[in-house]
Task: structure prediction
Amino acid sequence: MFVSLITTFARLAYDSGSNPPTQVLLRSLCMMLALGGLQMLRGHGIMLPRRALPTTLALAVCIFLMSFGYLSSVAYISVSLAVLLLYTFPLMVGIASPLLGRERMTWVKALCLIGAFSGLMVASWTGFGVLDWRGIAFALTGAAGVAGVALFGGEAMNKAHPFVMNAWMNLWVVLAVGAYLALFGDLALPQTQTGWLATAGVCVFYTLGILCLFLGLTMISPAQSALTMNLEPLFSTLAAILLLSEAVGLRQWIGMAIMLIFLGVSTLTGLPRREKA
Result:
């Protein structure tokens, strides 16, 4: 839910003069400072074991690819196609997870993956317009970044406290994006009060959303988490209706209903069975 609100508030920030690199920098900086500060208030250090540093770098790359891939794709292709391509990541996770020995693929899981994706396709299909290979590549890159987080994020959180891990991951993102902005002079801060309020919303919801995501990954399997994250388009749509006054047609509601049905089946079949006495 928190992640889904980022898109709506980011749109408001862009309309006020900001741009994707600036928003990525500010939200990563906010998360780094917030979680690092919370850890220090708890009376704990923010230094990582040496063995955990490469993990934070790898996950920072995934977050970077996720953010820049998705935000850049809409410059070349329609938003509906970008959303559809981004949410191929549950399929990526569903295929990669058994190959990596993380969990066993069953016919029910495979059906749920295909069913949830088909529901998303029904909801997103509005006529894709020009198919620019650059936009498709950016969107699939973003999907690969999300898949990497879903596959390895849960295990990574066991190496140190999630606050510390996320603070360091976002530190690497801040350094990378900051270097880019310094080199190309592309920093674009909001020019209105609404833009700054929207930017604050992006920072807060990003911090809460990514933190909840990584905490959740320690409790459920990668495939379950990937399927559950398909709820994000539903929440994004509701936020767009309420905050941006966007209209949603019957086909979109039908597609989301199909997606939710398959998500529900997948969740129920993934629950541990009660042992017989």
Q: What stands out?
A: The chain is about 75% helix and 0% strand.
